[in-house]
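Case study 2.
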Amino acid sequence: MSAPALLCGDLVRPARPGDAPMMAAVEMLTAPEFARFVFEDLIPDLSAGALMSQLYGGDGPDGWRWSWIAEAEGETVGALTAYPTRLLGAVDPQDPAAGRLAHLAGFAALTPKNALHISRLGVLEGFRGRGLARALISAALLRAAREEAERVSLFVWADNAPARALYASLGFRPSGRVEIAPHPRLTRHGESLLMTRPV
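Prediction:
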């Protein structure tokens, strides 16, 4: 797969450890519902963004090693994380977030094996329409081939027509559904689609 054309000055590159705070900031600005649900008020004196920054700075599946950064005008304006699902283990019941993660267990149950799973993707609003999301996904697709994954997967809200159209244009097709029940801490709920494409 060839890299999509970007505007002059735009760049998509692998993340580095120092990118973790900006990766968290992008998520909090583009898709904060799950981050706030899982991390807000989890540990006293640490915000959801600060906890996410620690997570992104680590070596786990959500860390910088499995992430890419989009830059425009010299600033971080987008990020994507996509990890091999073989790295996922069961949630430790002693994890402070275990109870919150149990509410989202439908996602974990539906995530395919031997896949590279796109867990996070966001581009800041003023920089959309420049091909950055497509370029970030294309970087993940190239990594999937190197990881010998059978497919690439992601979840998208069923009512997010623009995102579904983007993913469809890159060869993703719906392959499952999960219903996320309402929760007092969760700002978004409803039907989410699993979309996959072969590598």
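The chain has a mean pLDDT of 92.
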